Description:
- By secondary structure, the protein is an alpha+beta fold.
- 17% of the residues lie in helices and 51% in strands.
- A 13-stranded antiparallel β-sheet has the order 6-5-4-3-2-1-13-12-11-10-9-8-7, covered by helices on one side.
- The longest helix is centred in the N-terminal third of the chain and has 16 residues, at 10-25.
Amino acid sequence: MASANAAETHQERGKRVVDEALQALGGDAYLHMEDRVEMGRAYSFWDSRLSGLSLAKIYTRYLAPAPGQLGIRERDSYGQVDVRASDLKESSAVLFDETGAWEITFRGARPLDDKRFTNYKDSMLRNILYILRQRLKEPGMAFYSQGSDFWENRPVEIVDITDADNLTVTVQFDQLTKLPVRQVFRRRNEEFKDFDTEVTIFAKYRDVGGGVKWPTTIQRDRNGDKVFQMYSDSVQINKNLTDNLFTLPANLKLLPKAK
């Protein structure tokens, strides 16, 4: 096996590592995951200092993928625990779909500014967990192995994944579990005319049903500063989430777009 792997090209090795990661996440069951509900604690940071803590329930539903377009809808619900229902009582939410994003409060729904939605879309399209579910067969996707290394004292395989628009994310996969543990990409910062380095760390994978694995700890850093952490106490999949979670009610007041 070692000699066979040694004969691989960088492209073949990269594709093999990615395929092994998909199988480690659940293979066919992962590809057929229709929706997901994550509930736990979400922390936000400013200058690496804690700036906010919320109880969060994140609803996600996958759509039929199209190249370069979002194939996902997401509702990030924040509030307090309803002890009687053992659930989250929503006080506010942020809704993302394939066309835009809105902040929902008791005042109504306010469209988020274009930059925030653009960054969300870019981050999702370059998220390895999304790529493995939605983009592997997309025309123009390329995989290039950068070889092996160590990250936090564990051996990892490093793969550059590039799409048809020449957007790249570099992913580190644990050599033992085959699971993705860290990803890095750069995004143009139009304000300062340079680049931001976006890092996401995935940890504490659990079997969330049907053989599918999902990380229960996710951390995002920007330019070396921690900006977000999510610790999920529970993750459930294939809950038959309905359209009403991901659409604005007709009677909800639409507020001016955020500036």
